[in-house]
């Protein structure tokens, strides 16, 4: 352990390594204490949707603090919370009508799970105690949210001691590895929907509270997208057995994939509960939320008239004010539509430059949310050996060159499989987008030469 690491009292993610210090951030760039500038090509974990240092958000936070910095939600509400909910749910999009604001995506998923359970208790079906989720998914790091996810490495220390045992899993929408050769997209979607139907029947559909899924995959696999017709099929199967549908848009939502809700590109889906985070507050304050469908609210309103859950800092007025300012910037500058357009350029550039490369197996994503999966053999799709740490090496090399990217490991089976995620700000300039791809290619060249 170095002297610098010993001097830190912060429990960093790695005990033997102290991260570099960021001293300022503006637009699409960080500046480190060393003076190095880093292009934020992943916005942390797809968080900073409007970049860093936005003056409107700063002004909104200062104004809110000058008015009311904190009010406990058991007794009070604030204008910032009310206006944020009203902005997100104007016109009750997709039937969503109420918002519950918390401090993180993990908390949002826990709240959604509790809402689902309370819904069924108050609907007179307390025997519904099970969740069905998908393999190779990430839903958070609290006990509840980790239980319905399937990030093998993060679950390992807690699996037999703390995690819930009322969760079963079906296949992810991971076409690169699980769509059969020659299988049409619609047939692949139907096969996945049939698998879900079979799982409901196997565990007893009358025992299932909800099915949980990411419309576009996040950290565990990286930007996997559903085949055409999949989520409409999922909705039909959930309706068939009267099962709630919870969609996790903490990472892929808030405009990141080119529509405000990622599921909006999937046809008639009508989720019962949707979790938002990351891009909701853009990193300016910790905030996430659950959006509830009228169906869920009606049952609670006709029963107890309350949601049996609460946090000291839920709907925190300063956090809501910052998130509201971020949403106003998104709308004012038409950033969601611009994200969709920039995403087309980014996709084409990534495919042109990286598809021919020796270790690039798959390129996937939507909007400004893209991943490259690396493999040892492009024909067999055999993953690289985990001890090569290919994705981590990509991150380190990119960092040295002045680019931040988001690495992941275990994509293929929970142990092997490397990928990196690109998720720049939605208002990234074309010049910086071009720099991002240039630096990524340079980083890849170094890592490929070392592995070869």
Automatic annotation (TrEMBL):
Gene3D superfamilies: Aspartate Aminotransferase, domain 1, Type I PLP-dependent aspartate aminotransferase-like (Major domain). It comes from the Eukaryota. One of its GO terms (molecular function) is pyridoxal phosphate binding. Signal peptide: none annotated. Its cofactor is pyridoxal 5'-phosphate. InterPro entries: Aminotrans_3, PyrdxlP-dep_Trfase, PyrdxlP-dep_Trfase_major, PyrdxlP-dep_Trfase_small. Keywords: Pyridoxal phosphate. One of its GO terms (cellular component) is cytosol. Belongs to the class-III pyridoxal-phosphate-dependent aminotransferase family. This is Aminotransferase. It comes from Metarhizium brunneum. The lineage of its organism: Eukaryota, Fungi, Dikarya, Ascomycota, Pezizomycotina.
